[in-house]
Amino acid sequence: MNIWHYGNDINTDMLFPGKYTYTCSTPDEIRPHLLEDLDPTFADGVQSGDVILAGKNFGCGSSREQPALGLRSVGVAAVVAVGFARIFYRAAINQGLLLIECPDAVAAYKDGDTVELDVDNARIIIGGKAFSFPTLPPEILAIREAGGLLAYTRKRLAKG
Amino acid sequence: MGQTFAQKILAKAGGHDSVAVGQIVTVKPAHLLTHDNTAAIIGKIGDELDTYGVIRPDLSIIVLDHVTPAANEKTATGHKNIREFVAKHKIEHFYDIGEGICHQVVVERGLARPGMIIVGSDSHTCSYGAVGVFSTGIDRTEAASLMLTGETWLKVPPTIRVTLRGRFRPGVGAKDLILRIIGDISADGAGYQAVEFHGDIGNLSVAERFTIANMGIEMGAKIAAFPVDAKAEAYLEQAGVSRDGYEPVWADGDAEYVRELEYDLDALEPVIAKPHTVDNVCPVGEVVGTEINQCLLGTCTNGRLNDLHEATAILKGKRISPKVRLLVLPASRAVYEAATADGTLLALSKAGATILPPGCGPCLGAHQGVLAPGEACLSTANRNFKGRMGCKEAEIYLGSPATVAASALHGKITDPRDRS
């Protein structure tokens, strides 16, 4: 598992440049440009199960779901941050991407530390030390657990 | 205890007497705004649209503005798919290329009415707080779901109360105020929160309120709202919305706030947001003399007639520096026509400006004024992120229309109060 460690205010232009927003919308189109202007090594290096650690206000800026869709589709297990911008936060729920808001865990992380997710118990273990993180309200968790909002909506529509 | 604007709107929408901060409320928004991204949105739900159709043909407002006219085959195909969708599903509120930037169109055409909830798959949907609307950004997938179901969820936010006192001095404007606030409280200073503006609101035009509400998202805000006063009523009236067509909502006097701020407009000075974050704000004096290659006057933040007038007052009869390109984009067809009729665009053109069609233009870096490595741009837009204008090795500074105009004359960042 790789840990990708970034700073504060990582905006959606850094996660996925605006110039591609009307030409790339599928996971295959998105992948080569993921984090392009932030970390050119990410798109080639990311592997399923990797974790992103970041500071405050992760995902600020434009409404742009390609980062949430892209990170989920390449198998990022979670983004752990001091805080998230609200549109990105919703986009992640809607794509089924796990976001963990846990300032203490981010502060505790040192290069080389192991990172272990214990989602069932809402805990993240950094270098052997466990931190609890807040969970979503049940009605919102249901969206993420359905695999994202469209899967959730399809089920609702099918029920009539 | 009284309720905030956000609490009152969300309580009513959810069918509750009152709501508490943190409560999740199911809402049926009056409108759903989407733009060029409608192509990707409907692409997600083709089968469902065939089976169920759209929930309401009057829910969607679709405005083509982001890459218009189409820049390449892919964006052209997106526009074509949107036009076909609009015809097939009899979408009532569709505005094709050339009508303007979505947020300007929504307000100008009277689609945003006080007391409404409007959501949009664009972060600057918060703009309609200028006329007392609870409006906020969502993502494409949520927009797709809304087209089918007409409902979504919102969490009741805590609210910051900002009290404004006095009036702007010459050379200082709404852009300077909102940049100052963002610089003070930071890019996430209002994260997950609502912002209400109180005080001497009557000293601000609706256009100035629009500029301020528009940038609420740049401090992380869910909404940024103004009360509906006589000026707002008059604006709405000329937009075709009569006073009996809406019920304004505003905070109770004893509502509870998470934070209170106060700004003295008389004491403000022109400011600049330096690369690469919007909260990297300094007085213009700190960066005076910084050489720039391009100036942008326009966008949903500062592309209205008052903004063009402010710039023209500085540029009329003069000539911009040969070292700089000045791009001007009126925010809508109505602004374009008014600025044509009163000679504003002619004056700007004679000063050396390049006039572009109404739309988002180079703001998001897709076309019409992309920067080269090593270049710097001073823009009236709302974002200066690295790569925003299409090149990650370029620098973007943000300022007011007056600062942009004064700087275009000299080819370097200039204090607009210095008319030498």
Distinctive features:
heterodimer, A: Aconitase, domain 4, four-stranded parallel sheet, 7 strands, 34% helix, globular, B: 420 residues, alpha/beta, Aconitase, domain 3, five-stranded parallel sheet, 14 helices
The separation of the N and C termini of chain A measures 42 Å
CATH class (first level) name of chain A? Alpha Beta
Number of continuous helical runs of chain A: 8
Query: What is the domain total for the residues of chain B?
Result: 2
Our count of domains of chain A comes out at 1
Sketch the major β-sheet of chain A. Answer: 4 strands, parallel
- What's the helical proportion of residues of chain B? 25-40%
CATH topology of the largest domain in chain B: Aconitase, domain 3
As a whole number of angstroms, the C-alpha radius of gyration of chain B is 21 Å
Characterize the overall form of chain B. globular
Strands side by side in the biggest sheet of chain B: 4-3-2-5-6
Q: At the third CATH level, what is the topology name of chain A?
A: Aconitase, domain 4
**Strand percentage of chain A:** 15-25%
Characterize the quaternary organization of these chains.
Answer: heterodimer
- Residue-averaged pLDDT of chain B, rounded? 97
Q: How would a crystallographer describe the biggest sheet of chain B?
A: 5 strands, parallel
Notes on the structure:
The complex is a heterodimer of chains A (160) and B (420). In chain A, helix 5 packs across helix 7. A four-stranded parallel sheet of chain A has the order 1-2-3-4. Chain A has a three-stranded antiparallel sheet with strand order 5-6-7. Chain A contains eight helices and seven strands. Chain A has one domain: Aconitase, domain 4, CATH 3.20.19. By secondary structure, chain A is an alpha/beta fold. The longest helix of chain B is centred in the N-terminal third of the chain and has 16 residues, at 73-88. Chain B is an alpha/beta fold. In chain B, the strands form five sheets. Chain B has a five-stranded parallel sheet with strand order 4-3-2-5-6, sandwiched between helices. Chain B has two domains: 5-263, 2-Layer Sandwich (Aconitase, domain 3), CATH 3.30.499; 271-410, Aconitase, domain 3. Chain B has helices spanning 5-14, 38-44, 46-52, 73-88, 102-108, 140-149, 174-185, 206-214, 230-238, 299-302, 305-315, 333-341, 344-350, 401-410; strands at residues 24-27, 31-34, 60-63, 93-95, 117-120, 134-137, 152-155, 159-165, 194-199, 223-225, 259-264, 271-273, 281-283, 294-297, 325-328, 354-355, 376-379, 395-398. In chain B, a hairpin with a 7-residue loop joins strand 12 and strand 13. Classes of the chains: A alpha/beta (160), B alpha/beta (420). Chains A and B meet through helix 5 and helix 8 of A and helix 2, helix 3, helix 4 and helix 6 of B.
